[in-house]
What we know:
Layout (H helix, E strand, L loop, with lengths): L10 H4 L8 E7 L6 H10 L3 E6 L6 H4 L6 E4 L6 H14 L4 E4 L11 H9 L5 E5 L4 H4 L4 H18 L11 E4 H6 L9 H11 L4 E5 L6 H6 L3 H14 L3
Parallel strand pairs: 1-2, 1-4, 2-3, 5-7
Antiparallel strand pairs: 4-6, 5-6
Helix pairs in contact: 7-11
Amino acid sequence: MVFFNKNKYFAQVNLFKYPPSSVFVIVPSFNEGKVIRNTVSPLVEQGYSVVVVDDCSTDDTKKALHGLPIHYLHHVMNLGQGAALQTGLEYACQSGAEYAVTFDADGQHNVLEIPALLEPVVEGRADISMGTRFKRREDIAQVPPFRKLILKGAILVNGLLTGLWLTDAHNGFRAMNRKAMCSIHLRENRMAHASEILSQIKNNKLRYEEVPVKIIYSEYSQMKGQSSMNSINILIDLLLKKIT
């Protein structure tokens, strides 16, 4: 494992008076070999401690990451994104991380938005902050119409099941302090973990805040990302299991 020089600061991060290396950016990945290096390299350049959790990829993901100073964790069998996130959170907690950020491997998130996402956590207003696509008009315009409809349904279901009424659902861009990262224990291995996190925020009495973020809907991310039908399946799964 390789860490960066703690004296290397990202200009915006320095305003919050913490070294980027104290932020563990968790990147769950499954067969993202085509884009994983482009996703991870900007995080590395900013000095963050990057944790890639390879969920038993069958492509060249490991080879694509060769030479990058990251924390590489590998599942010996495919368990799902929820399980990969839990592995990353446990690793960050055990490694003494001050903050953790969850970051999609397919390039949908912007590294330059991490400081803004971290701000309410670092300033002590929240234990966890969650990205939202539905706070700014320009971000809302980027969401494909049918996906927007499905997400609105997911927001309703999440609110009814968890008691947390957010403006977005299934947004994987989050930041959290040590208390949050060490108290979240995901049982949902696959995509329903996004709603389970909300239940755990409520059950653990974690303070939360939403932060506007822009999701980059590239051709690749839309091809690889969860389909609208899969989103419907997640909602059905949540209704049947009634996560508590």
